[in-house]
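Feature request, filed as a ticket because there's no other form

It would be nice if the structure record came with a short human-readable summary line next to the tokens. Right now we just get the raw output. Example of a typical job, pasted below so the devs can see what we mean:
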Amino acid sequence: MLGVLTCALVLAACGGNANRYQGVAPETLFQMATEELENGDHGKAIELLDRILVAHGDWDRIAEARLMLGDVYFDRGDFLTARSEYQRFVDRYAGHPRAADAALGICKSLSSLAPEPQRDQGYTEQAITSCRNVVIDFSGQEQSSEAAAISNELRHTLAEKEFLNAEFYFKRKLNDAAIKYYEFVANLYPESEFAPAALLGLVRANERIGYDDLAEAARTRLLERYPDSAAAAEIRPSEPGTTDGPRG
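Raw output as currently delivered:
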């Protein structure tokens, strides 16, 4: 008898948990989820939004619930899951007025996964592609401008990664490898702060192995493209009448 009573109590507790939001309107659940998110209770907000998605799939604001679920995961720092939720929104509601927000969410989630420059930059490259899609697909909108800014920042990360590779090889006198990476920076990321230093690296690496014509070509590019840079100052000949010679 006691065993039956215990089992009944357990089943009742489980049933009560499963039916916690039974009969609660989706509008109320959505408002509750909004409040929980504002209070920082991500777990409760996710529970409420999942209830909407499972039990109220025909609700006229179901797309907003899906988008908010992505926002909750992003706010919690679970960027991979956030990306997945934003992607589901884009796949299912491409024509929704807030599609730009979801697309930007993918861009921001991937950019948040981008590692330090010294590590593999797979997520960085994915984020740049995603952000560029936002720039193109939603041109003229605020989300496009924000995605462009994120993309530019990520390109800076890639430029630093390649420059660090070049410096690594240059210090070990592996000049051919260093030249390859310096060229990557100078050619692929000319807008980055590392481009002038990369050209200076090309000058020095080519001089070291006797490629004077290539060194001179890099010197010319540096002085013409980045005349006010610190790298240019290092190789610019001194003015007539001064006592200093070239600093290369």
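Something like this underneath would help us a lot:
The radius of gyration is 28 Å.
The chain has a mean pLDDT of 88.
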